[in-house]
Amino acid sequence: QIYETVLGWAGMELGLNFGTPIFDGASEAEINEQVTKAGIPVNGSAQLYNGLTGEKFHQRTTVGIMYM
Prior knowledge:
Order of helices and strands: HHEE
Oligomer: single chain
Distance between the termini: 11 Å
Number of strands: 2
Number of domains: 1
Strand content: 5-15%
Largest sheet: 2 strands, antiparallel
């Protein structure tokens, strides 16, 4: 599900929607291709910040978009 979440983020950046049916979804190579096209990190991680203090969180976090 993490791959599909990152694919959703790539789709948002590219203006595309992707369907990944259970047991017949996109391959890791197909997802990496779209993520690379979108210019986002292949591991789907982003630097997040504390909304109150503006300080960076210590570790990057996987983010993305998923519809269930």
